[in-house]
Amino acid sequence: MSSAFRVGRGTVLCFRGKDRCRVFNNLCTQDLRKLSDGQAVETFVTDVKGRTFGHGIALALDEEAYFVTVPNQASKLIPHFDRYIIREDAVISDLSNDFRLWIFRDRSTAAKACSVELNSVPETRNATRLTMDGNSIVLVHAPWIGPESVLGLIANEASDQPIRDRLGDECAESDMEERRGWELLRIQAAWPWYGIDLDERNLPQELDRNDLAISFNKGCYLGQETIARLDALGQVQKKLVRIAIESDLAPQPHSLVQSDGKDVGTICSSTFDASHGRCVALAYVKRSHFKTGQELCVNSARAVVL
């Protein structure tokens, strides 16, 4: 299996101005006021009802803050942030067309691709800007395909050929739509894809990423009351979980998850895992059935919560 994927364009937003982190913080579940230069965190962008208006990686570099997420989100997110800028010194720019994205499975692969020492590659919750073959590249820890995976933001004017030359068969041409070659890794890593596994209808806690993407003591932000109330109640009625399905045919999105003939969930993403001879999926499952080891059924095939 390849360990590096050239995936093309995502959404890259840049926040500038002395109040950049304050503005960013006001609409996110993470405490971005504490985001220091070279740090990166996973976060949800929320709306006034506490729903998930976006999801991705926030990072701070060189007196700028960035938000990196799935493609085609700028036209929605920039007006959402602009609406709440009153007197703050902050400007938001769409840099999505300025970068191509690569995903490296781990730090060692990123180091080899960029021809740098391993200690130059950011570890968990960190980011850095490097010079690669005379061009600037941003590397940021982004657990899209595993706990150590690294996202590379390469300026459009830079060539990808040096990376291909250094990695050889380890790299693959892919995309952000079908996610060829890394969809299995993404599902195994339980990284939810905005627009497929979550959207504006979901609450952040339904993604089961509280420790990774939500601060419950940061203070006020848009939608915070709903999220805090749900935290106080201590439960959600459904949750996104990984399930293994004893079938070689991946179920379609919106396929039903059942238990004893009753509908208890819905498939979001799925793919075939050839190494185990089964399918794996991300699915929303009701509270009564989302515990690890719970036996389920999808399209008459046995399934189990991982």
Question: How is the secondary structure organized here?
Answer:
Blueprint (H helix, E strand, L loop, with lengths): L3 E5 L2 E6 L3 H6 L14 E7 L5 E10 L2 E6 L4 H9 L8 E4 L4 E6 L2 H8 L12 E6 L2 E7 L8 E6 L5 H7 L3 E3 L9 H6 L21 H4 L10 H10 L4 E8 L10 E4 L2 E12 L4 E9 L8 E4 L2 E5 L1
Parallel strand pairs: 1-11
Antiparallel strand pairs: 1-7, 2-5, 2-6, 3-4, 4-5, 7-10, 8-9, 9-10, 12-15, 12-17, 13-14, 13-16, 14-15, 16-17
In short:
This protein is of the alpha+beta class.
CATH topology type of the largest domain: Gyrase A, domain 2
Strand order of the largest sheet: 8-9-10-7-1-11
Average pLDDT taken over every residue: 97
- Overall structural class, as computed from helix and strand content, comes to alpha+beta
Going by CATH, the architecture of the largest domain would be 2-Layer Sandwich
Number of helices in the DSSP assignment: 7
- Got a strand count? 17
- Molecular shape: globular
Name the CATH homologous superfamily of the largest domain.
Probable tRNA modification gtpase trme, domain 1
Helical fraction equals 10-25%
Instruction: Give the end-to-end Cα distance, rounded to a whole number of Å.
Output: 22 Å
H-E order: EEHEEEHEEHEEEHEHHHEEEEEE
Which sheet architecture does the biggest sheet show? Answer: 6 strands, mixed
What is the gyration radius calculated from CA atoms?
A: 20 Å
Under the CATH scheme, which class of the largest domain?
Alpha Beta
Q: Unreliable stretches, pLDDT < 50, 5 or more residues?
A: none
- Approximately how much beta-strand content do the residues carry? 35-45%
